[in-house]
């Protein structure tokens, strides 16, 4: 059975729903949940670009740590063993899916749990799907939990306008 589950977190509603499933699996199987967040360098360029890349990077790092800490706190409350990894830049430029798959291999996980927004049509063409990318690359099963796309809990754009 599964001994180690990877949960990919990005602060979104689907990832929060995926956390609930990881907690169920972790409790039922008494296995460890390995949390991973990849700093999305493409997001920094979109939001502030040349203007303040260092500040943008710090905000992304802070947000990433926050996503991991919040998920870790829920796992601790549920009594599920866990570990965390913040990957400060994708292993390939813009390659979040490649990085999640590589991290899963390095951590020797037995299954990957993720959210997905279930985008359709043009949005999917433009934005792609991290979950679909992982599904194509992964050597272990991938559990996808679909949720509404209401945007990330953290936004550089929103916080810089505040
Ligand atoms: P999709 O909606 O198909 O693009 O997949 C979104 C899911 O991919 C999220 O719910 C997370 O599980 C995962 N994900 C997306 N971005 C990241 C990231 N930067 N770090 C870790 N996991 C991520």
Automatic annotation (TrEMBL):
Entries under Pfam families matching the protein: Usp
InterPro entries (UniProt xref): Rossmann-like_a/b/a_fold, Universal_stress_UspA, UspA
Cited SUPFAM superfamilies: Adenine nucleotide alpha hydrolases-like
Domain spans labelled UspA: 1-145
Domain of life: Bacteria
Residue ranges the record marks as coiled coil: none
Protein's name according to its UniProt entry: Nucleotide-binding universal stress UspA family protein
Family note: Belongs to the universal stress protein A family.
């Amino acid at each position: 059975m599964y001994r180690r589950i990877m949960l990919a977190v990005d602060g979104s509603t689907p990832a929060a729903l995926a956390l609930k499933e990881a907690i169920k699996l972790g409790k039922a199987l008494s296995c460890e949940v390995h949390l991973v967040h990849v700093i999305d360098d493409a997001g920094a360029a979109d939001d502030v670009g040349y203007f303040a890349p260092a500040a943008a990077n710090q905000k992304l790092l802070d947000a990433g740590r926050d996503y991991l800490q919040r998920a870790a706190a829920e796992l601790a409350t549920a009594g599920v063993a866990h570990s965390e990894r913040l990957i400060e830049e994708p292993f390939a430029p813009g390659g979040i899916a490649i990085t999640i798959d590589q991290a899963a291999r390095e951590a020797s996980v037995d299954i990957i749990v993720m959210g997905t927004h279930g985008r359709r049509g043009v949005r999917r063409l433009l934005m792609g799907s991290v979950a679909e990318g992982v599904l194509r690359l992964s050597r272990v099963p991938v559990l996808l939990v679909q949720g509404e796309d209401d945007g990330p809990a953290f936004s550089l754009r929103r916080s810089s306008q505040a």
